[in-house]
Design brief:
The complex is a heterodimer. By secondary structure, chain A is an alpha/beta fold. Helix content of chain A is 25%, strand content 39%. In chain A, α3 (30-40) runs antiparallel to α6 and α7 crosses α8. In chain A, 49% of the residues are buried. The A-B interface holds A 333, 335-336, 338-347, 349, 353-354, 356-358, 360-361 and B 48-51, 71-73, 75-77, 81-82, 84, 87-93, 97-98, 101-102, 105-106, 109, 141-142, 158, 162.
Chain lengths: 395, 248
């Protein structure tokens, strides 16, 4: 059976219920999404951007879907007309599936010049007692000169099979600032596909941080277009993996205007039999002169069975640019380990401190003090509860 | 007391130590001199349990216990300290966190509660003064961006924090100017207790002028070929090592 058909069939038979509580703008795009999904099928690993994650396998099981009954409030037409304009269903099966099935839309809107002091926090906690699929949709719009921070928290409280898709569209207006933190702390029975599509106007700044503390199979795709002069993006990522976990971050930074800057740093700690993948493409178009771009991916691979695929890519069509890209894969520094042990620090504690130190480079880039401290604590907790850490087992 | 008997050790399959016998009593300072490649650093690495070195024969008894059967961290808890010849940088681990982890690991081994934050910082402040180590360095990553002299002073500072009973100073004088050498050596003298023993590995007389060893050994090709009083160091400074080489 073609694994897309169970979703398309479900949509066809439940269309009325899906559309009943939903926005007109969402309903208007469902048919095209269904057709695109039908045409595209789930990407095989021969599709370049999906080569590291088996999508069809993730979508093959039969998950339940809970349909919302709530009705949608009236939203400003000017806002919601942006829905689906960055996340194009024609090119991507996950985006198509999400657009076909998502019922609810969360909109974060900052009006021109509005500075929000406190971050908007959206936490999703999975508690279902049967296998569940969720399709989530988020639209972030920061008008000119606005400043907004959004923290997405993904958690799973029930030991259950979960599959979530999320599509996030981010519009960063002229001179606006958006910081988006995406923190996943789920478990090994969770599959997650998160597509972020962002557009940054002239002089705008976007920071996106993808922090995977714990997961099953996670694929985060982050596509950013820098469309106005002097636009700036920073992509940060940190993934901590052990067991059979799999985290795949796939990014595209598209420099379409002159004088834009991009910074990208992803760090992975891959332990036991886990697999990590990073593919980051930086595209500098001909008109994007004076681009300044740095891309870096650094990875700690802790065992012989752990695997890391890394693929930094730089594609330049302009002739006056400053760009670099690179990646490293390595093990814990043995000399540092021994130094610590000579000072009486046990091997497991020394390893934990070194892993934490490795991740701290990403943490130190997070300007939100409270969030940084919380993440620091969670990272430590995460490393301490790794199965190979004898420390907590003793206690 | 440290008692080394007929110690043989290899690194990468090559025999470096070929039968070392050495007894260091409580409170004694022993100097270990010899040319590069004689086995001085190998001996110190073997004593602290570096995994790259394999002991093929012999025994080491430290305060009545079999040292070679212990893990490197246990040896540290038992009171053994190595001041490294080249202290490594540990990016991302601050001096404060590093020292706290080390000190509390030792306290746990001794059955004590972790030290509270206030007492710990006070202790750091006290011990730092002896080696004139700047407070700014404490919030930096371990040895990261430290000058050569600061790294060596940092070694002695760590020694002061952990209060070992047996210190091995592996070429602590290398790369130090005269002033830095004085600070390190005087720091060591002030911080050591009456029963602290030391093995001081050096090429030069000048460190020994400060540390005043009780016994001087000369190590050539993995064996101790001569043992004498402090005057032996002076003799080596004048005559070199050639006259000590065994007849071939």
């Amino acid at each position: 059976m073609n694994p897309t058909s169970q979703y398309i069939d479900f949509f066809r038979s439940e269309r009325q219920r899906i559309e009943a509580g939903s926005l007109a703008v969402m309903n208007a795009q469902r048919e095209a999404a269904a057709e695109a999904l039908q045409r595209l099928g789930f990407p095989t690993q021969k599709v370049e951007r999906y080569k590291y994650t088996d999508v069809a396998a993730a979508f093959a099981p039969n998950y339940g879907i809970s349909l919302a009954a709530a009705s949608a409030p009236q939203l400003e037409e000017a806002l919601i007309s942006r829905y689906g304009t960055l996340a194009r269903v024609e090119d991507d099966a996950i985006t198509a599936l999400n657009t076909m099935l998502a019922q609810e839309l969360i909109v974060v809107h900052a009006a021109a010049g509005e500075h929000r002091e406190h971050p908007v926090q959206i936490t999703n906690t999975l508690r279902a007692t049967a296998p569940l699929m969720q399709n989530r949709r988020l639209l972030i719009i920061a008008e000119a000169g606005a400043d907004v921070q959004v923290i997405l928290g993904d958690r799973a409280e029930a030991q259950q099979d979960f599959l979530t898709t999320q599509v996030t569209e981010v519009f960063v207006g002229e001179g606006a600032r958006v910081a988006l933190y995406d923190i996943e702390d789920t478990h090994d029975r969770c599959h997650r596909f998160h597509q972020v599509f962002a557009q940054v106007a002239a002089g705008g700044h976007l920071t996106h941080t993808a922090f995977t503390l714990a997961s099953g199979v996670s694929r985060n795709q982050t596509d950013v277009q820098l469309v106005g002069e002097g636009a700036d993006v920073q992509l940060l990522g940190c993934a901590i993996l052990n067991g059979q976990q799999h985290v795949d971050n796939n990014t595209l930074i598209d420099h379409r205007a002159p004088g834009c800057t991009s910074r990208e740093l992803y760090k992975y700690v891959v332990d036991q039999q886990a697999t990590g993948a990073f593919a980051g493409r930086v595209l500098v178009r001909q008109e994007a002169q004076q681009t300044d771009s740095v891309e870096r991916n650094a990875n700690l691979v802790c065992t012989d069975q752990a695997r890391m695929w890394t693929q930094p890519m730089l594609e330049i069509y302009a002739d006056d640019v400053k760009c670099s890209h690179g990646s490293t894969v390595g093990q814990l520094n043995e000399a540092a380990l021994f130094y610590m042990r000579q000072r009486g620090i046990s091997e497991s504690e020394a390893r934990m401190l070194l892993k934490q130190a490795f991740a701290s480079e990403v943490l130190s880039e997070i300007p939100l003090e409270a969030l940084r401290q919380r993440l620091q604590m969670q990272v430590e907790k995460r490393f301490r509860s790794c199965d190979d850490c004898k420390l907590c087992k003793k206690e | 007391m440290l008692e080394i008997k007929n110690l043989h050790a290899t690194v990468g399959g090559k025999e470096i130590l070929k039968g070392i016998d050495l007894v260091v009593r409580d409170g004694e300072i022993h100097a270990l001199m010899g040319l590069n490649g004689a086995g001085k650093s190998t001996l110190s690495n073997v004593l602290v349990g570096h995994p790259a070195y394999t002991v093929t024969e012999g025994s080491v008894i430290f305060n009545g216990k079999d040292l070679l059967a212990m893990s490197p961290d246990e040896r540290s808890h038992e009171g053994l300290f190595l001041s490294f010849q080249q202290p490594v940088e540990i990016p991302g681990v601050s001096m404060v966190n590093f020292m706290r982890a080390a000190l509390n690991a030792k306290r746990k081994y001794q059955g004590l509660e972790p030290m509270d934050a206030g007492a710990f910082l006070k202790l750091m402040r006290e011990k730092r003064k002896f080696v004139e180590l700047d407070n700014k360095l404490m919030n930096r990553s371990v040895n990261e961006g430290f000058s050569g002299g600061e790294r060596k002073r940092n070694e002695i500072f760590q020694m002061a924090m952990l209060e070992p009973t047996m210190c091995i100073l592996d070429e602590t004088d290398s790369g130090l100017d005269v002033d830095a050498l004085r600070i390190v050596a005087e720091g060591f003298n002030k911080l050591r207790k009456a029963d602290t023993s030391a093995i001081v590995i050096t090429h030069y007389q000048r460190l020994l002028d400060y540390l005043k060893p009780d016994v001087v050994h000369v190590l050539i090709d993995g064996r101790i070929v001569k043992t004498g009083g402090p005057e032996l160091a002076g003799e080596i400074e004048e005559r070199g090592f050639d006259w000590l080489k065994p007849e071939s």
